[in-house]
Each structure stands twice: as structure tokens, then as C-alpha cells.
Amino acid sequence: MNKKVIKLLDEQFNKEFYSAYLYLGIAKFFAQKDLPGFASWYKVQAEEEQEHAMKIYEYLLDQDQDVTLAPIGEVKVKFKDALEAVKAADEHEHYITDEIVKIMDAAVKDGDYRTQNFLNWFIEEQQEEETNSKEMVAKVQMLGKDAKNLYLLDKELASREG
Ligand SMILES: [Fe+2]
Ligand SMILES: [Fe+2]
Questions:
Q1: Which ligand is nearest to the CA of 129?
Q2: Could you give the angle at which helices 82-109 and 3-32 cross, rounded to 10 degrees?
Q3: How many whole angstroms separate alpha carbon 30 and alpha carbon 154?
Q4: Ligand nearest to the CA of 17
């Protein structure tokens, strides 16, 4: 495997754990705001991010490559309001999409078809993540100002299981 592709995948492994941390921070913010539905939704998302990291972990080990267990960066956990918190998630997903595309670029340049095939799952997943995070921002924009609507939205979000 190409050194650059390995390095980018290794770094992405860490970024997926960072994503999990970010979502846990958002979950905590909502829990402390007494919005348990939002908190639960972001906790499920945090778990999903760990699954993404583990996909990369398994892939690198399957290729007889190493995985660096580097420290996970500290995340911002203070938000002005619900809208700022869900917007942070949306911005982050766009950043992650860009990072996945960079790894794909490197795999394409290297003619590494196996890694391209592996990354296709992430490319699709990022579409889902961007759609979800965009819809979340729209919902909070539409409903977040009214306490009763926010309560109903919180109830709806509580139903996410994974
Ligand atoms: Fe992810
Ligand atoms: Fe997802």
C-alpha cells in the first residue's frame, strides 16, 4: 500500500473518534439542557462514529498495516443554543466529507482499487450524514424558537435507535 494512503487512513481513524467525541459533547450539551431526545440522538451518532473508526482499524490491520492510537483532540462542548450545537455537527460533517475525498484522491492516484472500494462506503455514508445534519439544522431553525415545538421535536428524536 502507498504510504500516503496509509497515513491518511490512519489519520481518518483518529478523526472518526474525534467525531464521536464531538457528538458526545453535543449530547452532553442537550442532556444538560433537559432535552433527552436530542441527547439520545447524538449519543447514537457518537456510537456510529466509533463504528466508522473501527471499519478503518479493521481495514488497515487486514492490509497488514499499523494503526496509530494517537490522542483524540479535545472538542468544543459549549454552545450558545440548540441551533449553534446542531450547526457545529453540520459543519463538521462537511469537513469529514472533504477528508474522505482527499483519501479517495490519493487512492485513485495510486491505482489502489481495493482502498477505493473500501472508501465507497464512506462516500455514501457522508451523503447520509450531510442530509441528516442539514435536516436537523432546518428542523431546529423551524421549530427551535417555540418551547412546545422544541419539546415535540425532542420527543421525535428520542426514537432513533441506531
Ligand atoms: Fe464518520
Ligand atoms: Fe450515518
A1: 2
A2: 170
A3: 10
A4: 1
Q: What is the pTM of this model?
A: 0.95
Looking up cell 457522508, which residue turns up? 126
The answer to whether position 125 is within a domain reads: yes
pLDDT digits (tens, 9 = 90+) for 12-68: 999 999 999 999 999 999 999 999 999 999 999 999 999 999 999 999 999 999 999
Q: Which residue stretches of the chain are H helix? A: 3-32, 36-62, 82-109, 113-143, 147-157
Q: How far is the CA of 66 from the centre of ligand 1 (A)?
A: 20
User: In terms of residues, how long is the chain?
Assistant: 162
- What's the number of domains the chain is made of? 1
The domain that contains 130 carries what CATH number? 1.20.1260.10
Query: Cα(44)–Cα(159) distance, rounded to whole angstroms?
Result: 11
Largest interatomic CA distance in the chain: 55
Domain for residue 129, yes or no? yes
Domain assignment of residue 162, yes or no:
no
Q: Which amino acid is at 104?
A: M
Residue 41 lies in a domain: yes
pLDDT for the residue 144? 87
| Ligand nearest to C-alpha 99 | 1
Which domain range does residue 152 map to? 3-157
